[in-house]
Amino acid sequence: VIAFEEAQAFVLDTLAVLTPDTLTLEDALGCVMAEELMARESVPGFINSSMDGFALRASDTVSGSVRLRVIGSVLAGDATSPRIAAGEAMRIMTGAPLPEGADCVCMIEEAIVEPADDTVRIERTFAPGEFLRHPGEDIEIGQVLFSPGQELGAPGVGVLASQGFSSVLVHRRPRVGVLSTGNELSRSQGSLRGGEIRDTNRPLLLALLHESGFEPVDLGIVRDDLGDITQRLRNGVRDCDAVISTGGVSVGDVDHVKLVIGELGGESARWMQVAIRPGKPFAYGVVGEERTPVFGLPGNPVSTRVSFELFVRPALRLLAGHHQLTRPQFDVVLDDDLPRVPDGKLHLIHAVARVHGDGRVHVVRTIRHGSHLLSAIVEANAILMLSDGVGLSAGDVVRAMILDVDRLCAAS
Ligand code: AMP
Ligand code: MG
To answer: Which of 88, 121, 237, 365 might form a disulfide with 292, Cβ 3.0–4.6 angstroms?
Structure first.
């Protein structure tokens, strides 16, 4: 039996980030930058107005009260406009280029318009540059916009678009195959025959992958047959950047997956008994020239979820180039007793976590618990990491892995 940290480190040590690829901005959202990107255009590209108002010459306003002749108007997108001479002003809209001769803008709210004779009265002194936006104020040519390793978020997409970039070199989103194993898994949507169950893990894992920004690939269901499992895992390795299978890694008579992963992974493979509950049996190896990781997770759905969070997701984030591999983890306040018996294992307990009025995060465990009770964890947004011992009492703090930060603030 090995510690959770050792099992996780064993997996991460076998992996390297995927080779970069050029993706459209839309596809690259959430990916990690693989190149340094420098600005090639200045933003703004020209002097323009930051307000709707009047472009004028500051020197005309020194007396503190002046009446200027309005000689025309310039809109955002206009390329040229007449030159402004002393005693003149021009209507100007936000984003419009500043007309030649002008050196500031008076916003419309401050101007007294006299439509009858096409004049405007300005009742204060202006300094050159007021309400103007200057070239390079946002971005200067040559400035470093992104460094390798930075994650591309929505504002980043906007910045790249403001520079005219339509694609970018990023680490690919890993394509991850999901295979379910087990003679008991029904292949039809119809009514179940004796002994059959529906395949929960495959849709569960495909959804978990999707939620975490990876590209899920459905590898279907396979029976507990050594040859078939070998073939399907090989195909998965050929087509994907990583493969997850569930079932068949325990000590049952037809638990072949651990053998197949051992066979395919050779030296790199390891069948582990991890000191965690749930999720104790775990098979892992890297397969083929591309060293594709293959994860053999236990079949109980709650175990599958826990193993995904502990081992699979951090590994896939490493492949994707992320530096932060794990979910946010911090100490939270227990609102209920959390008794347990010492068994040498780290217990992973689904819980509902909420920010309370005291500004702290409080948790209550899900009412029913068991590695086969998936419906009990639907509302959970955290996994408590309860160390070995006799448990904790209400009011104690416990380490929690937060799965859904948005729901920290949901009404309970
Ligand atoms: P195993 O790890 O293959 O021994 O399976 C452990 C338990 O998980 C058994 O009760 C299986 O029937 C169940 N199980 C395995 N695979 C799935 C699946 N894809 N969906 C739902 N339950 C499963
Ligand atoms: Mg099985």
So the answer is: 237
What is the residue whose two structure tokens read 């318009």? 113
Residue 144 Cα distances to 24, 39, 147, 351, angstroms: 20, 6, 7, 43
**186 close to ligand 1 (CB < 6 Angstrom):** no
Cis preceding-peptide flag for 342 (omega within 30 of 0): no
pTM recorded for the entire structure = 0.94
What value does the mean pLDDT take over residues 106-118? 95
Instruction: Quote the pLDDT of residue 411.
Output: 76
Residue nearest to atom 10 of ligand 1 (CA): 300
300 lines ligand 1 (CB under 6 A): yes
| Residue with CA nearest ligand 1 atom 14 | 299
Express the helix, strand and coil content of the chain in percent, nearest 5 each: 25, 35, 45
Pick the closest to residue 270 from 246, 287, 253 (CA basis): 287
252 lines ligand 1 (CB under 6 A): yes
Q: Given strand 119-122, what is the order of strands in its sheet? A: 104-107, 53-56, 88-92, 66-74, 119-122, 111-114
Cα 316 from chain centre: 12
